[in-house]
C-alpha cells in the first residue's frame, strides 16, 4: 500500500522546515506569499492533504454532527442534503450512519458517538422516547420528523398536512376516500388524526386501511381494494412511496387514474413530479426542517443553549396539486 504523504515530505520537496509547512497548511501568519505558493505547489505535486481528524483532536473539538437516517427513504435523502448544506454554513461537517434492515438504529447511533461527533441528528427515529431522552442527557440530540417530549424536535405539522390533503379531495367532490395508514412510523399518528378530523368535518365515513412506507405495501393495499370489487373514489396514502405502489397496481389493472380513482401521497419526493407520474402530494419543507435542526444543534454544541426545556419546532407543509387527482365523476 502506498504511504500517505506527510508534512515532512512536503517540507523536503519545498526545501523548507516542517514547522513552516505547518504554518502554511494552517493558514496562519509567519510565512511570505512566495513561500506559501512554493509549499502549496509541493503539496499538490505529491498529493498531500491535511488530516482534518488530527486538527480536530488538537482543537479538542471535532465540529462533527452525526446524522442517522433510514436507507431507502427518499424524503430522508432530501433531509440529509439539507443538513449538509446547513452544517457547512455553520462551519461543521456531517458524518452519516444509515439504518438498514441489517443495521439497527442503536448501532447507527453508537458509531457516530464512537466517531466523536459533538451532536446527533436522528431522522425519523423509532427508538422509545425514554431511550431518546436518556441519550439527549449525554449528548446534544435533535430528532427530525418526530415529536419526543423532553428532546429537541423539528417536524412538519402532519395533522395540518393531512387535513389540507383531505380538503383538496373533498373539494373535488370525493366522498369515499380511503386513507392508507403508516402504522407506527414517525408522523403516522398525526396524519391519521388529520384525516379523521377532516372526514368528520365533511361528514364523510372513515375508511382507514393498512398501508405502510413502501411501494410494496401500497401495492398490497391496492390489490386488496381490487379484490373487494369496491374501489373508493380516492386514495390518500401515508407517503409518496406507498402512493406509487397504489398507482402501479391500478394502472397495470386497467383502472384509470385519476378518471376513476384519484391518488394522493405525502412528502413530495423527487419521483412525485416526474412527467409520467404527476402525483398530487403534500410537500414537506425539507430544506427548512434541516436548517432548523442544524441551527438548534449548533446552539447546543456551541453552548448558546444549555439545559432547559426542549423545543418542538413545527413547520407547516403545503399542498402540491398535480395530475393524479381530479374531480369526481361518480
From TrEMBL:
Output the InterPro entries linked to this UniProt entry: HTH_LacI (IPR000843), LacI/GalR-like_sensor (IPR046335), Lambda_DNA-bd_dom_sf (IPR010982), Peripla_BP_I (IPR028082)
Which Pfam families does its entry note?
LacI, Peripla_BP_3
CDD domains xrefs: HTH_LacI, PBP1_LacI_sugar_binding-like
Q: What is the name attached to this protein's record?
A: Transcriptional regulator
- Return the SMART domains for the record: HTH_LACI (SM00354)
Q: Which domain of life is it from?
A: Bacteria
User: What are the HTH lacI-type domain coordinates in residue numbering?
Assistant: 5-59
Gene Ontology molecular function terms on file? DNA-binding transcription factor activity; transcription cis-regulatory region binding
- What phylogenetic lineage does the species belong to? Bacteria, Bacillati, Actinomycetota, Actinomycetes, Mycobacteriales
Note whether Ion transport occurs among the keywords: no
Keywords, ordered alphabetically: DNA-binding, Transcription, Transcription regulation
Q: Does the keyword Transcription regulation apply?
A: yes
Amino acid at each position: 500500500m502506498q504511504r500517505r504523504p506527510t508534512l515532512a515530505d512536503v517540507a523536503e520537496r519545498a526545501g523548507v522546515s516542517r514547522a513552516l509547512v505547518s504554518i502554511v497548511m494552517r493558514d496562519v501568519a509567519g510565512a511570505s506569499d512566495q513561500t506559501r505558493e512554493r509549499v502549496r505547489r509541493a503539496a499538490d505535486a505529491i498529493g498531500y492533504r491535511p488530516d482534518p481528524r488530527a486538527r480536530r483532536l488538537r482543537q479538542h473539538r471535532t465540529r462533527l454532527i452525526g446524522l442517522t437516517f433510514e436507507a431507502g427513504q427518499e424524503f430522508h435523502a432530501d433531509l440529509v442534503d439539507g443538513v449538509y448544506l446547513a452544517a457547512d454554513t455553520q462551519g461543521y461537517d456531517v458524518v452519516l450512519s444509515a439504518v438498514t434492515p441489517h443495521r439497527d438504529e442503536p448501532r447507527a447511533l453508537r458509531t457516530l458517538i464512537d466517531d466523536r461527533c459533538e451532536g446527533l441528528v436522528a431522522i425519523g427515529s423509532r427508538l422509545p422516547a425514554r431511550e431518546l431522552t436518556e441519550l439527549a442527557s449525554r449528548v446534544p440530540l435533535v430528532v427530525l420528523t418526530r415529536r419526543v417530549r423532553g428532546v429537541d424536535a423539528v417536524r412538519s405539522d402532519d395533522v395540518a398536512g393531512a387535513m389540507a390533503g383531505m380538503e383538496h379531495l373533498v373539494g373535488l367532490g370525493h366522498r369515499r376516500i380511503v386513507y392508507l395508514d403508516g402504522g407506527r412510523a414517525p408522523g403516522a399518528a398525526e396524519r391519521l388524526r388529520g384525516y379523521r378530523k377532516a372526514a368528520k368535518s365533511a361528514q364523510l365515513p372513515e375508511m382507514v386501511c393498512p398501508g405502510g412506507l413502501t411501494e410494496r405495501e401500497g401495492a398490497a393495499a391496492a390489490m386488496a381494494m381490487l379484490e373487494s370489487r369496491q374501489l373508493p373514489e380516492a386514495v390518500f396514502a401515508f407517503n409518496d412511496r406507498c402512493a406509487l405502489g397504489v398507482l402501479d397496481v391500478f394502472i397495470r389493472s386497467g383502472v384509470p387514474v385519476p378518471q376513476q380513482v384519484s391518488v394522493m401521497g405525502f412528502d413530495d419526493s423527487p419521483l412525485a413530479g416526474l412527467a409520467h407520474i404527476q402525483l398530487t402530494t403534500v410537500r414537506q419543507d425539507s430544506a427548512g426542517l434541516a436548517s432548523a435542526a442544524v441551527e438548534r444543534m449548533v446552539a447546543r454544541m456551541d453552548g448558546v443553549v444549555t439545559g432547559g426545556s426542549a423545543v418542538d419546532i413545527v413547520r407547516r407543509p403545503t399542498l402540491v396539486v398535480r395530475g393524479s387527482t381530479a374531480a369526481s365523476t361518480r
